[in-house]
Specification:
This protein is of the alpha/beta class. The protein has a domain of 173 residues: Collagenase (Catalytic Domain) (3-Layer(aba) Sandwich), CATH 3.40.390. It is built from 7 helices and 7 strands; from the N terminus they run H-E-E-H-E-H-E-H-H-E-E-E-H-H. The strands form 2 sheets. It has a 5-stranded mixed sheet with strand order 4-3-5-7-6. The chain is globular.
Length: 304
């Protein structure tokens, strides 16, 4: 069967026109990847928004001083609520969601390669929701879905698992957005990207790892291309563009030392290519946590 025909069969199956399902909403369809690339993220910030983020972070560093600093060996534990959306037929199983949590702790703990970021995830609960509209279009129904389901405060990660469009694997809000839109805070990923999912090349749970990296304040490794300050992390080599697939190596910034970080979770490589965070990324995530996710003992006041 040709790749086009295979993808067409898969799309018909995902539309509910012939997919064989196991109990518990789990797909067993060995489909070709209809997405093709990790590519589209609805909340990807513009360069102006990134500059705003960094300016706000610098301001908080000045105002909070030592009180806002994070120790080099300090661990943070993120309370996690998982919302499993389904339409009564399709959707993720509880078991696959639990495997996703295991993958998160392995990736952020450095057990797959790279640095231990000293970030851990503690599952608070799994919330199963049957809602055809939310499941099939979580982005279009985001406000209603998150307003009804979100649990906890600014330090609680709400992970919504539903079905996204052909071009989107997942999307996340950033830490500094919480103050103005607390109900929208969280991460949404496609259920077929969970460990053992139906999306070829994106079936190891690393879409969740990637998007939660954004929720914790990381940018893409290819941010700003070959120009300073890149992704604002010193130990991730510069990259002129996102990675597609899983090349043996890639160097898109020839005048800057170091190959592109194709194995970093914050690139767009296929799951089989991703293995690591860096020490600097761990520091940034823990600082973002301290500045934005931990409630301050006193309100942050800025002098004119």
């Amino acid at each position: 069967m040709s790749r086009f025909a295979t993808v067409l069969v898969c799309l018909l199956a995902f539309a509910g026109l012939g997919q064989s399902l196991t109990p518990g909403w789990a797909s067993t369809e060995p489909c070709a990847d209809p997405h093709g690339s990790r590519g589209a993220e609805p909340y990807a910030p513009t360069s102006a928004q990134i500059a705003e983020m960094q300016a706000d972070l610098e301001m908080r560093r000045r105002v909070r001083g030592a009180a806002g600093q994070v120790g080099a060996d300090e661990f943070i534990t993120v309370p996690l609520w998982i919302h499993l959306l389904g339409d009564g037929v399709r959707g993720a199983t509880t078991q696959s969601a639990l495997r996703q949590v295991e993958v998160l702790n392995a990736a952020y703990g450095g057990r797959l390669g790279g640095a231990d970021t000293r970030v851990r995830f503690r599952l608070e609960g799994v919330n199963r929701v049957v809602n055809k509209v939310w499941f099939r279009d979580p982005l279009g129904n985001e406000t209603a879905m998150k307003t009804a389901l979100r649990k906890g405060g600014q330090d609680t990660l709400n992970l919504y698992i539903a079905q996204l469009s052909e071009l989107v694997l997942g999307y996340a809000t950033y830490p500094h957005w919480y103050a103005r839109s607390p109900k929208l805070d969280g991460v949404v990923i496609d259920w077929r990207t969970l460990p053992g999912g139906a999306l070829k090349n994106f079936d190891r749970g690393y879409t969740g790892v990637h998007e939660i990296g954004h929720w914790l304040g990381l940018l893409h490794t290819f941010e700003n291309g070959c120009a300073e300050p890149g992704d604002h992390v010193a130990d991730t080599p510069a990259a002129g563009q996102a990675t597609e697939g899983c090349p043996a190596r890639k160097d898109t910034c020839k005048t800057i030392p170091g190959d592109d970080p194709i194995h970093n979770f914050m690139d767009y490589s296929h799951d089989r290519c991703m293995t690591e965070f860096t020490t600097g990324q761990g520091v940034r995530m823990r600082e973002m946590w301290q500045q934005y996710r931990v409630p301050a003992a006193e309100p942050l006041e800025i002098s004119a």
